[in-house]
Amino acid sequence: MTATAPLKIVAVAAGLSSPSSTRLLADRLAEAAREQLADGQDRRVEVQVVELRDLAVDIANHLVTGFPPAGLKKALDAVTGADGLIAVTPVFTASYSGLFKSFFDLVDNTALTGKPVVIAATGGTPRHSLVLEHALRPLFAYLRAVVLPTSVYAASEDWGSHGDEYTEGLPARIRRAGGELASAVTGRTVSGASRNLTLDDGEDAVVPFAQQLADLRVG
After folding, report:
1. Once rounded to an integer, what is the mean pLDDT over residues 29-35?
2. What is the pLDDT of residues 109-147, one digit of tens each?
3. Using an 8 Å Cβ cutoff, are 159 and 21 in contact?
4. Which among 1, 34, 82, 163 is least surrounded, fewest beta carbons within 10 Å?
């Protein structure tokens, strides 16, 4: 009897500093998805984070020569072979970073067809949050991926924030996005993506995925 292949979640982090808030956001999104994928099913879940800062020279060489070095090829194969993808970039000049764009320029425009993707970004101010809608969402639509409804933007002030009665804090948005990715990967209802989720909630009620999507607030 053949062992069931593990579910693979790959997060791409385009942060340039170390440590990086972009990497931190990628890790938290990946962990949220992993926890909800592991809940109630027997398949193993493998999580891999691709740090683009470590591949910057290889990316530039590939753009010039057309041949990916081994490390870059491994990263590209991981992205295209993932069951679910998380893509996180810092905001540069009101858009995604050049390193982020250069990496995804190397992905064949059919390789992500139908793949569920959570898009996310980090920045110093909330004013740049629309980068998710005017830059990242069109990029992955061009790559024919399925971009999930909840995107996550983390400004400096969001870290450690639990939100208030009118807005969700960063932890709740991360958990909701992770729940949507888990649902899309497995095709089953996953708790944790519902509208009223907070870090202090107990066990979440199971909400049909269609209702979860209908409950998502615009913006």
Report:
1. 96
2. 999 999 999 999 999 888 889 999 999 999 999 999 999
3. yes
4. 1
Neighbours of 177 (CB within 10 A): 25
Distance CA 81, CA 111 (A): 9
193 Cβ neighbours under 8 A, 6+ residues apart: 150, 175, 176, 177, 178, 179, 180, 182, 183, 207, 209, 212
Q: What is the pLDDT of residues 154-210, one digit of tens each?
A: 998 888 666 554 456 899 999 999 999 999 998 864 444 433 333 333 333 434 444
> Do residues 206 and 143 lie in contact, with contact meaning Cβ atoms separated by under 8 Å?
no
Tell me the C-alpha to C-alpha distance, in Å, between residue 212 and each of 77, 138, 150, 191. 32, 23, 11, 10
DSSP class per residue in 55-123: GHHHHHHHHHHS---HHHHHHHHHHHH-SEEEEEEEEETTEE-HHHHHHHHTS-TTTTTT-EEEEEEEE
8 Å CB contact between 39 and 206: no
Residue 39: what pLDDT? 79
Element (H, E) at 8: strand 7-13
The pTM for the full model equals 0.82
For residues 73 and 103, the answer to whether their CB atoms sit within 8 Å is no
Domain 7-215 in CATH 3.40.50.360 = yes
Residue 89 has pLDDT above 90, yes or no: yes
